[in-house]
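User: Hi! I have a protein structure encoded as tokens and I'd like to know what sequence might fold into it. I'm fairly new to this, so please keep things simple.
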């Protein structure tokens, strides 16, 4: 469903906004149509004859008070996790606006590229979350290492390849997003930040998904808050004082890098290549 929604939205955005020139109306139509297509895809799964016989057995497991409380706690933490990222983004863009209009436009275009990379990586993150949750729930802990390694490698390869295209061909690719020559000239000075940023972001989203699959959302939330407070905020303040867009991007990069390091520290045995006892499983904190 995510692939249908995101894939058709990208295609329809290009066709309706760029090709047909429908501007904001085209963006709205593309979003609405892609969501309805995603709904149709979901209904096709529900209508499958292989699905209905499972309902009676699953229903009893779903309607469990303690399990629902756990889900509510998980959703609460996930909301806080999303709010932390959104707050960082808002601060970043507001500072960009205070610097200069051209910097604001350039940083916004760069962030559009980052957001597209997140959409691409999130598909693998969701797969990681589902598989980790399934193996952990079934008690097959030995499978967790191989799942994590596999999706970290896939996400990193995809993220680096995607970022490299924009670093190597900024005029061509950013030219699809804007015809503002001043903004593209500024992007030439900033575009190299995409490579480490999207690379570490690829790792971070998979590690996030790993712990969310274990329902250890508090670990992810604490990592984001600490990364924001001790990584992003101090450097962003310096960037504000020096009126530096490069330092602002460094602040956001530190936010992502610190998140990756804090999450990786919870999986020390994996990083050392010694998965015996899967130490990070025993040390993770409860919700």
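Assistant: Happy to help. Inverse folding works backwards from shape to sequence: for each of the 287 positions I chose a residue that suits the local structure. Here it is:
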């Amino acid at each position: 469903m995510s692939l249908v929604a995101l894939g058709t939205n990208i295609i329809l955005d290009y066709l309706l906004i760029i090709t047909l020139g429908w501007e904001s109306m085209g963006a709205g139509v593309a979003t609405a149509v892609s969501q309805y297509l995603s709904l149709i895809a979901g209904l096709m799964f529900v209508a499958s004859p292989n699905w209905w016989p499972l309902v009676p057995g699953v229903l009893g497991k779903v309607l469990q008070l303690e399990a629902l409380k756990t889900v509510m706690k998980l959703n609460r933490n996930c909301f806080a996790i999303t709010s932390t990222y959104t707050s960082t983004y808002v601060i970043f863009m507001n500072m960009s606006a205070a610097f200069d209009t051209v910097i604001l436009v350039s940083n916004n275009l760069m962030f559009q590229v980052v957001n597209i990379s997140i959409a691409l990586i999130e598909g693998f993150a969701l797969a990681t979350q589902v598989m980790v949750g399934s193996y952990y729930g079934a008690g097959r802990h030995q499978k967790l290492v191989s799942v994590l390694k596999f999706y970290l490698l896939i996400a990193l390869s995809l993220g680096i390849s995607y970022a490299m295209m924009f670093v190597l061909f900024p005029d061509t690719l950013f030219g699809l997003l804007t015809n503002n020559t001043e903004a593209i000239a500024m992007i030439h000075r900033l575009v190299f930040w995409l490579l480490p940023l999207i690379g570490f972001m690829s790792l971070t989203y998979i590690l996030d998904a790993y712990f969310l699959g274990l329902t250890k959302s508090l670990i992810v939330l604490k990592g984001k808050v600490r990364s924001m407070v001790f990584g992003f905020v101090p450097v962003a303040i310096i960037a504000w004082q020096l009126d530096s867009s490069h330092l602002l991007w460094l602040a956001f990069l530190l936010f992502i890098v610190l998140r990756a390091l804090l999450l990786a520290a919870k999986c020390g045995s994996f990083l050392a290549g010694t998965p015996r006892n899967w130490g990070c499983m025993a040390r993770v904190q409860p919700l």
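A useful reference point when you look it over: Residues 269-287 have pLDDT under 50 and may be disordered. Feel free to ask if any position seems puzzling.
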